[in-house]
């Protein structure tokens, strides 16, 4: 695979290069070490592309997990203890929230990495909520979000979001004081 796009949100690239030397090179090496052709394994059943071979997000995620873990990155999971203080009188939830959690795909030296081949909302959640939460909890200082460029997303199931769309929205949204620096990488097969 290769990196086809770079977007520095809140100076993410500059901060990573200045304060975490070698991290970007390690992430870039991890991306290029994955041969996307090995994951062109999903036969589409969608009516607009029946029988077409597509890239498997599950397979790609597994490849990223193996590659990052081999370099000493770790997954970090935190339990969610949801408050019951906000239920109105008389309401009793039908199901338990025990076991709920949030996790960051990969963390090393206070840099958090998320790989996202899903719907658009997950990209936004990763950068605008999850990375902020993990920063507030003291696990990360900066983030890297790895997403497909449009050309690559078009070779996956419908609905997979992409780099160009995400960057446009971040630019038009602007940065908030609670946002952390994030380097968004657009990857291609």
Topology:
Blueprint: E1 2-9, H1 12-19, H2 23-32, E2 42-43, E3 53-54, H3 57-70, E4 74-79, E5 101-108, E6 111-115, H4 120-136, E7 142-148, H5 150-153, H6 163-173, E8 182-188
Parallel strand pairs: 6-7, 7-8
Antiparallel strand pairs: 1-8, 2-3, 4-5, 5-6
Key traits:
189 residues; two-stranded antiparallel ribbon; alpha/beta; 6-stranded mixed sheet; 6 helices
**Helical proportion, percent range:** 25-40%
Which residues form runs of ≥5 with pLDDT under 50? none
Specify the overall morphology: globular
The biggest beta sheet is recorded as: 6 strands, mixed
**Which structural class best describes the helix and strand composition?**
alpha/beta
Cα-atom Rg, whole angstroms? 18 Å
Tell me the series of helices and strands, N- to C-terminal.
Answer: EHHEEHEEEHEHHE
């Amino acid at each position: 695979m290769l990196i086809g796009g770079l977007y520095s949100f809140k100076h993410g690239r500059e901060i990573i290069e200045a304060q975490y030397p070698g991290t970007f090179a390690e992430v870039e090496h991890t991306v290029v070490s994955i041969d996307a052709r090995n994951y062109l394994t999903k036969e589409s059943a969608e009516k607009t592309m029946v029988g077409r071979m597509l890239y498997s997000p599950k397979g790609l995620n597994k490849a990223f997990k193996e590659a990052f873990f081999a370099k000493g990155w770790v997954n970090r999971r935190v339990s969610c203890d949801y408050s019951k203080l906000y239920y109105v009188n008389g309401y009793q939830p039908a199901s338990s929230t025990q076991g709920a959690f949030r996790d960051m795909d990969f963390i090393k030296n206070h840099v958090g990495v998320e790989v996202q081949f899903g719907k658009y909302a997950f990209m936004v959640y990763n950068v605008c909520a999850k990375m902020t939460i993990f920063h507030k909890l003291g696990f990360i200082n900066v983030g890297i979000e790895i997403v497909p460029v449009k050309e690559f997303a078009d070779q996956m199931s419908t609905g997979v979001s992409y780099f160009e769309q995400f960057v446009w929205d971040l630019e038009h949204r602007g940065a908030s004081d609670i946002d952390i620096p994030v380097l968004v990488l657009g990857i291609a097969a």
